[in-house]
Amino acid sequence: MKRVVLMIVVLCFGATLSAQDIPQPVDVMTNDFRGRVEGGFEWEVAKHLSVEAGVQLRLMNDFASVDRTQTSVGVNYEVCKYFDIGADYILINRYDAASKAWEKPRHRANLNLEGKVKVGRVELSLRERLQTTFRTDSVNRYEKMNPEMILRSRLMAEYSIRHSRWSPYMLFELHNTLNAPKVVANYKSDPYSTDNYITRYRAGVGVKYRISRNHRLDFYYYFDYDSSYNIDYKGNKGDLKGYLRENEYRHIFGISYKFKL
Question: What is the pTM of this model?
Answer without folding.
Answer: 0.89
